[in-house]
Amino acid sequence: MTVSEALDAMRSDLPGCSLVAYTDLSSRLVLSTSSVVKPMQEQLDALSQAAQIALDGTLADGAAPVWDDEAAGEPARTALLLTESEARVILRAGGTSAEALVCVCTPDSDLAAVIARGQAALDDILAAA
């Protein structure tokens, strides 16, 4: 399964999901997307920057004290950015990986399902690499 196929499958499996982006946190670049409407480059840049801040940057640093003791010292694997108009679910591939998914969906989406499906998509992508 290619990256594009994995992203398309994830988006089609999740009602309310309008965009899924596969990004490299270290370079802050979106590597591939699946979306209802083609996003502008500025939107992709903002998604990648938000993912980096949420998983590796100041937002992750600020949240570290409330993490589970077992996760102490480990980089964040999941972040949720919620507003009245959308939910952004950000998932790290695993360990200290620089690869992540960003899923933009409606605020009433089943976030547990988005996280589970996103982890499965990341597993598919990494298995194909």
From TrEMBL:
Recorded superkingdom: Bacteria
Name this polypeptide is given: Roadblock/LAMTOR2 domain-containing protein
